[in-house]
Amino acid sequence: MRTRGLLRVRHVRSLGIFLVIVLSVATIALAGEGREATGDGIEAPPLAEVVELVDAGRFEQANHLIDDALASVAPQSGTHRALEFQRERMRRIRLDFRLDAAQVEAAVRRQIPDLRDDEFERWRRAGLFESRVIDGEVRYFGRAPSNLFRLSEEARARRADPKPFNDSPLEQQQPHHAEIREQALAQSRRSVAPRRVRVTQSLTVDADAVPTGETIRAWLPYPRAIDGQQEGLHLLATEPARHVLAPESAMQRTAYFEQPARAGQPTRFSVSYELTVFGQYVAVDPDEVVPVEPTPELAPFLAERAPHVIFTDAMRLFSAQVVGDERNPYRIARRLFDAVDRIPWAGAREYSTITNIGEHALKAGHADCGQQTLLLITLLRLNGIPARWQSGWIFSDGRYNNMHDWGWLYLAPYGWLPMDVTFGRLPGDDPALADFYFGGFDAYRIAFNDDYGREFVPAKTHFRSETVDLQRGEAEWDGGNLYFDQWDYDFQWELLPLPPGQRT
Questions:
Q1: Would you say 393 and 401 are in contact if contact means Cβ atoms under 8 Å apart?
Q2: Which of 4, 311, 456, 491 is least surrounded by Cβ atoms within 10 Å, i.e. has the fewest?
Q3: Are residues 245 and 353 in the same domain?
Q4: What is the mean pLDDT of residues 201-225?
């Protein structure tokens, strides 16, 4: 599951082109080149130096360097835009790290009224409150107080009113898992146990966030039809009615809208559709698995891809420690899956603020689903096992729903197999279901993104709020991007009877 730093969302069950990641990629690429010539022949200071200053929390110095660099960089150059993004990244980091120590302690004390000073200080010194130093001042992540209870069993036991975490019910063994496995084995096929679902997803820009009369542009996630995974896609309605659907070839598919801002009124965009989602399960015999041939089709899924899938020294060391002398691709993948699964889940800061998400997950001591997935993808590719990204939204038979990220790995001769390292090893009474999410997944997930950091159609003009994927939506106007603190999003869903003739 995934929730991030700056969230404004209502999770409701009713009755129911180019800027993408290019700015972050440019950061890595330009940093590797040292000094880059601008469009008019003047050299700019290396972008890498700005990135390092931002990562080190030296914002004032970074801003001075950006100012000096922008004075000598062509306004429309990639360097200019990448430098401007670093300034925006600092603003976003400040939004995520908005608490001081007194505010963190006050938030924890609401959960633990008899909190002792020595307890709080011990947890702080142990690094259980995510923080960073910004221009000499220690600032704490806005979700650090709640993350404490994810990271510390001792702290959980001290809560006066221990409410259960809002985890997906599918993180425990359920009849649905057994249904999928039994049908897949009995019918000798991967795609089984379908669910028909109706979805309405919306994005509502705050009143007066944009001057009256100015056009707001919005992109909402819209799924692709994927054979055997999600089929029978049918658009029902949109608000406003006029829209543009990206082609199914778009790896991050969207429904695009334009609407004028009205004085004192929020501006709402929505899309409603139906589709059928299938569970997946493949029974793998590890002894049959062999190393893959790096074909042109698989080559992109074996390679590094800046900025978030990089084979760093730390990544190589961790991989060597986990894999040891194992040579069987299945068992290597299993070891890596289990190792990443052991990283505790915690709410994460916004992805656009992180220079290398895979490396961050490795070093932070905790991670959310997208961070875990990018780390696992990196480790698998490093070991010659193709791996790719997928993300979207999950729901259940009850009232639960949330954004979620997962992935796929390729094992010869079986082909592409799903993996959900965040759900990981399933606790429960049936040993046969413990490894369900290593080679299988449920029928309660809709994929919006078949890759990360890909182009929108039509393209976004300004910086994206989310540079990795698209689950909440995006919005902008001629004056700039509209960030997450300027709009709300909503996901409503309803399970439907399967249509006549739908295979079960």
A1: yes
A2: 311
A3: no
A4: 98
* Judgement on whether residues 457 and 444 belong to the same structural domain of the protein: no
What's the DSSP call for residue 307?
T
- CATH for 379: 3.10.620.30
Token pair, residue 329, equals: 């691709």
- Is pLDDT at 5 greater than 80 in this prediction? no
Q: How far apart are CA 489 and CA 7, in angstroms?
A: 9
Measuring CA to CA, which residue among 51, 56, 78, 77 is closest to residue 66? 51
Residue 430 and residue 466 in one domain: no
Query: Same domain for 329 and 406?
Result: yes
Residue span of the structural domain in which 331 resides: 284-449
Same domain, 246 and 330: no
pLDDT tens for each residue of 89-119: 999 999 999 999 999 999 999 999 999 999 9
The pLDDT assigned to 92 comes to 98
Domain count, the chain: 2
Residue for token digits 């599951």?
1
State whether 405 and 429 are in the same domain.
yes
Tokens of 83: 């430098």
Q: Where do the H-state alpha helices sit in 71-132?
A: 78-96, 101-111, 117-125
Coarse DSSP helix, strand, coil percentages of the chain, rounded to the nearest 5 percent: 30, 25, 40
Lowest-pLDDT range of 14-18, 230-234, 332-336, 345-349:
14-18
Q: Which residues contact 126 (CB under 8 A, 6 or more apart)?
A: none
Rounded to whole angstroms, the Cα distance separating 393 from 114 reads: 38
DSSP classification of residue 487: E
Q: Assess whether pLDDT exceeds 80 at residue 307.
A: yes
Give the single-character DSSP code of 501: T
Strand pairing of 487-496 and 9-11? parallel
- Per-residue CA distances from 175 to 45, 168, 193, 233, 344 (Å): 59, 14, 11, 26, 26
Residues 88, 483: Cα–Cα separation, whole Å: 11
The answer on 350 and 395 residing in a single domain is: yes
Residues sharing a CB contact under 8 Å with residue 222, sequence separation 6 or more, in sequence order: 245, 246, 253, 254, 255, 271, 273, 448
Q: What is the rounded CA–CA span in Å between residue 290 and residue 34?
A: 41
State the average pLDDT over residues 62-84.
92
pLDDT of res. 76: 84
Q: At what angle do helices 101-111 and 117-125 cross, to 10 degrees?
A: 120
Q: Provide the pLDDT for residue 1.
A: 57
Flag whether 92 is in a domain: no
CB proximity list for 109: less than 8 A, separation 6 or greater: 115
**DSSP bridge pairs for 219:** 256, 474
Q: Report the C-alpha gap between 454 and 470 in whole angstroms.
A: 10
Residue 348 is encoded by which pair of tokens? 């994460």
Any domain includes 104: no
SS3 state of residue 186 = helix
Q: Is the peptide bond before 294 cis (omega within 30 degrees of 0)?
A: no
